[in-house]
Design a protein that fits this description.
The complex is a heterodimer of chains A (114) and B (111). Chain A is an all-beta fold and 114 residues long. Chain A contains no helices and 11 strands. In chain A, strands 2, 4, 5, 6, 9, 10 and 11 form a 7-stranded mixed sheet that branches. The radius of gyration of chain A is 13 Å and the shape is globular. With 111 residues, chain B is an all-beta fold. Chain B contains no helices and 12 strands. In chain B, a hairpin with a 5-residue loop joins strand 7 and strand 8. The chains are: A mainly beta (114), B mainly beta (111).
């Protein structure tokens, strides 16, 4: 059972570069989301999706884009990397957006922007 | 909007002693509350959740949590701590849609 798979696990970018963080789940979950984790700040929601073709912004969406062309995949794109985007990024999925369902998390991508 | 607060950045306990990690919540409507644990360089793992019913919820690895509506709290507990319980613990609340997390509490269990 793969669950939620994130790639890459580590990445170093130069300021201004772009990249895509990949996220795939094999549980047929409708709801997917991206969080960033920074020390002392917990997890902050970047973007989320309630199903294929539907995405919306979370708390900290600036500098990030998402798309959801399939149920399985939810990539996160950094358009022009900035040092403030240095963080650990987690993708999570849930059976639905109903509040009684918990999340399954990926193992994270540690991103450093220099 | 829903939110949770974890008032302690760090909790230290001796192995074999009971542990408590505190969480308070703010939500309009019924609260749906969760606890997650994060080990170093890993993603978050689900421990337990409260939806409705019994105020004492039992979860994985011997953990339990007590829901208190009057105090708007959802504290995580374990009767006897293990060194292997040392990790970062997150409380979370979910309304329709996204889940909001606390800042996390680092639990250290010393032998």
């Amino acid at each position: 059972n793969a669950g939620v798979t994130q790639t890459p696990k580590f990445q170093v970018l130069k300021t201004g570069q772009s990249m895509t963080l990949q996220c795939a789940q094999d549980m047929n979950h409708e709801y997917m989301s991206w969080y960033r984790q920074d020390p002392g700040m917990g997890l902050r929601l970047i973007h989320y999706s309630v199903g294929a073709g539907i995405t919306d912004q979370g708390e900290v969406p600036n500098g990030y884009n998402v798309s959801r062309s399939t149920t399985e995949d939810f990539p996160l794109r950094l358009l022009s990397a900035a040092p403030s985007q240095t963080s650990v990024y987690f993708c999570a999925s849930s059976y639905s957006d109903s509040p009684g369902y918990g999340y399954t998390f990926g193992s994270g991508t540690r991103l450093t922007v220099v | 909007a829903q939110s949770v607060a974890q008032p302690e950045d760090q909790v230290n306990v001796a192995e074999g002693n009971p542990l408590t990690v505190k969480c308070t919540y703010s939500v309009s409507g019924n609260p749906y509350l969760f606890w997650y644990v994060q080990y170093p360089n890993r993603g978050l793992q689900f421990l337990l959740k409260y939806i409705t019913g019994d105020n004492l919820v039992k979860g994985s690895y011997g953990f339990e949590a007590e829901f208190n509506k009057s105090q708007t709290s959802f504290h995580l507990k374990k009767p006897s701590a293990l060194v292997s319980d040392s990790a970062l613990y997150f409380c979370a609340v979910r309304a329709r849609g996204d889940m909001r997390f606390g800042a996390g509490t680092r639990l250290t269990v010393k032998p």
